[in-house]
Amino acid sequence: MLLIQTSIGTGYDLSNSVFSPDGRNFQVEYAVKAVENGGTSVGIRCKDGVVLAVEKIITSKLLKPGANKRISTVDRHVGIVSSGLAPDGRHFVSRARDEASSWRGIYKGPIPVSALANRLGGYVQAYTLYSSVRPFGVTSIMGGWDSEAELAVDGQGYYGAATGKGRQAAKAELEKLDLASEKLSLHDAVKEAARIIYVAHEDNKDKEFELEMSWISSLDGPTQGRHEEVPKELLEEAERAAKRALEGDDEEEDEGAKGTGNVGERMEE
Amino acid sequence: MNHFPGTWGRPRDDVYGPYDSSYLQTTGPKTHTQSPAVTGTSVIAVKFKGGVAIAADNLASYGSLARFTDVKRLRKFGDAAVIGFSGDVSDMQYIDRLLESIDIRENYSAHGNQLNAKNLHTYLSKVLYKRRSDFNPLWNHILVAGFDSEKKPFLSSADLLGTTFSAPHLATGFGAHLAIPILRRLFPEERSIEEISKEEAVSALKDCLKVLWYRDARSMDKYSLALITQDGIEVHEDQQIEAQNWAFAESIKGYGAQTV
Amino acid sequence: MFRNNYDNDAVTFSPQGRIFQVEYAQEAVKQGSVVVGLVNKTHAVLVGLKRNAEELSSYQKKIIEVDSHMGVAIAGLASDARVLSNYMKQQCLGSRMTYGRPLPVNRIVSQIADRAQTNTQQYGKRPYGVGLLVAGMDEAGPHLFEFQPSGMTQEMLACAIGARSQMARTYLERNLDKLEESSRDELITHGLRALKETLSQDKELTVDNTSVGVVGLADSGKVESFKLYEGQQLLPLFEALDKSDASETKDEETMEVDS
């Protein structure tokens, strides 16, 4: 809140690409605000694949259930989930698809996920440079499989990532999983991702939501290196397990969220 | 070596006389591909009750040289269609990449709207026609096998000129001359597709492949055969032409090892 | 001087992360007269209330056929809607030309959504001032999409946008279960009734101020091409509405079995 008050009225926050005297780009910070209220997204990288999950808040009874996907396929082996302004997310995905397909045009093969993340990082950054555009109102998590599993946000590789409203709680849960040891299996990661979305939703309980999940397994796994929706049966199983886990240990969850909240916030910047 | 890079690699004028550069065309119209380079021969296909069968051998020839003997000329497009290519192999690979990019685009969302074989054929014939109109043709003759939007078996061809042609059985290349008569005898016009079983279609294709192997000098006896039915696509690769009998060759002058 | 400094263009975020120019464009949609859209298992229906600028002038078109399998209903700036619907028409024709297939509905909706998004991220452009309901039919069945100036698109079971559309949405929410099970003609009746809910006291639906568009799957299993009902063609639809209204007031419980 303090941050906002110091920026307003100084005139340094009215245009993109302008620094304030203390070296901040307020328009970019405001764009982040748009993300902070979006539905929570998480990504988990494990030894034999990557899972993406998103909490879709149901804004109207009239929405078609199961439609309106928030996780997009970029190329056969890459998926993206975004939190924030949905149309900006679509723009971002559309650029990712163009990059992936132009890579294929030149190299006759799939783009490595890290290369794609690098290019998109550059693209998003360019939207902070000019006063004629505004920054993207999204944070995206990209998951894919090339020779080795990779999960990346803006060029950095992650074992686990979370964005959106419930990101702090989600990050706290991700840290408990000890993903760096690469012991978690893909199937367990699906269940963990579902549970984490449910945990992250706890603070927003008055609103109903739909869980959407996708995964990319290793070449000898269930998706054969392709980005696909998690099959209905598995998704429902994961949801049931998530609900059970939530009823089981409410107290433990709260403690964890408090303990690591600060670390999560620093990662965001 | 001297200091005139333009003469490097050329025969020395003082030894061989002035260099004749007339073959290096400097004027005249711009030209594109005038002939194919590495080529595949016939593709043959037959509609049967509930599906389509299609086959092509594994050879890619460089002129009369049997250059590559493990080239797959049947390409699957999703679960919807199989495309058989004859003609230039590099152009086939180009079209294959085109199809791959379409397949990726089509699968951005699993929305239940798949391109079917008929859609693909419309698209490919347009690509081929555009390229021939640019005087830069893709040197292929293709067969597209699969289903149309009404779930009826679909089989159609398109060639380097953008010409399209459709029939219950089709063959490209040498097959147009050697296989079509056999297929017409087996499946005359008055015989409905509903009367043709899958097994019968497959054995007809195998017969044709054998005749082609006997008489087409740009063919080989290893082939791929695909079956497209409502249950999906089966592709059998690296099949071998069986029960070969070359006895007939003995009696044909110029075919075997006769000396007179 | 408490003027809002963050609403001059679409490329400035407010400190809360909002883009006011886009929100203002959304207001233009609310100024437009109401349109309603709804789907069941086989059909998608659009219903619109037309306005005339003055007594003697003609009524402004509310429903536009895009292709034989798709139509749009508009609320907001009609000229912006024309730009978008012309683009949609071209894309649909392009698909029929190159692939010989009707363009899947979600595909074209995404395309106009991407166009609209571009207008919210570049200086010198303005967001579209129109909301659309896109009703169409493809291999996956009937679809209804809502399109907003922000570039937000959502697939809906039923939807209403424009002036006083909240009343229609309330009706649709209450009758959501009935919509799914309804027949083609019942779906139209529900659409008309939702539209009626939005009317102010002194107004009523007439053959002049109402438009109905229907697309779906015919009994033959083939696509029933987009059909626009206007003028005298509406009379049978109004009759069905009156009949259903009458039977509902007579006996509410029997309405569902009534066919």
Describe it:
The complex is a heterotrimer of chains A (269), B (260) and C (259). Chain A is 43% helix and 22% strand. With 269 residues, chain A is α+β, with helices and mostly antiparallel strands. Chain A has a single domain (26-252), classed as Glutamine Phosphoribosylpyrophosphate, subunit 1, domain 1 (4-Layer Sandwich). In chain A, the strands form two sheets. In chain A, strands 8-1-2-9-10 form a five-stranded antiparallel beta sheet. Chain A has a five-stranded antiparallel beta sheet with strand order 3-4-5-6-7. Chain A is globular and about 55 Å long. Chain B has 260 residues and is an alpha+beta fold. Chain B has five helices and 13 strands. Chain B has helices spanning 13-16, 89-106, 117-133, 175-186, 198-215; strands spanning 38-40, 43-48, 51-57, 60-62, 65-68, 74-77, 81-88, 140-147, 153-159, 164-166, 169-171, 222-229, 232-240. In chain B, strands 1, 4, 5, 6, 7, 8, 9 and 10 form an eight-stranded antiparallel beta sheet that branches. The radius of gyration of chain B is 22 Å and the shape is globular. Chain C is an alpha+beta fold and 259 residues long. Chain C has a single domain (20-258), classed as Aminohydrolase, N-terminal nucleophile (Ntn) domain (Glutamine Phosphoribosylpyrophosphate, subunit 1, domain 1), CATH 3.60.20. Helix content of chain C is 36%, strand content 24%. Chain C contains seven helices and ten strands. The longest helix of chain C has 21 residues, at 78-98. Chain C is globular. The model of chain C has no long low-confidence stretch (mean pLDDT 93). The chains are: A alpha+beta (269), B alpha+beta (260), C alpha+beta (259). Chain A binds chain B through residues 69, 72-73, 75-76, 97, 101, 104-105, 108, 228-229, and chain B through 97, 100-101, 104-105, 107-110.
Question: Secondary structure elements and their pairing?
Answer:
The complex is a heterotrimer of chains A (269), B (260) and C (259).
Chain A: H1 2-7, H2 26-36, E1 41-46, E2 49-57, E3 71-75, E4 78-84, H3 86-107, H4 113-126, E5 138-145, E6 149-153, E7 156-157, E8 160-163, H5 167-176, H6 186-201, E9 209-217, E10 227-229, H7 232-248, H8 250-268
Antiparallel strand pairs in A: 1-2, 1-8, 2-9, 3-4, 4-5, 5-6, 6-7, 9-10
Helix pairs in contact in A: 3-4, 5-6, 5-8, 6-7
Chain B: H1 13-16, E1 38-40, E2 43-48, E3 51-57, E4 60-62, E5 65-68, E6 74-77, E7 81-88, H2 89-106, H3 117-133, E8 140-147, E9 153-159, E10 164-166, E11 169-171, H4 175-186, H5 198-215, E12 222-229, E13 232-240
Antiparallel strand pairs in B: 1-4, 1-7, 2-3, 2-11, 3-12, 4-5, 6-7, 7-8, 8-9, 9-10, 12-13
Helix pairs in contact in B: 4-5
Chain C: H1 20-31, E1 35-39, E2 43-49, E3 63-67, E4 70-76, H2 78-98, H3 105-118, E5 130-138, E6 141-147, E7 153-155, E8 158-161, H4 165-174, H5 176-181, H6 184-197, E9 210-217, E10 223-229, H7 235-250
Antiparallel strand pairs in C: 1-2, 1-8, 2-9, 3-4, 4-5, 5-6, 6-7, 9-10
Helix pairs in contact in C: 4-6, 6-7
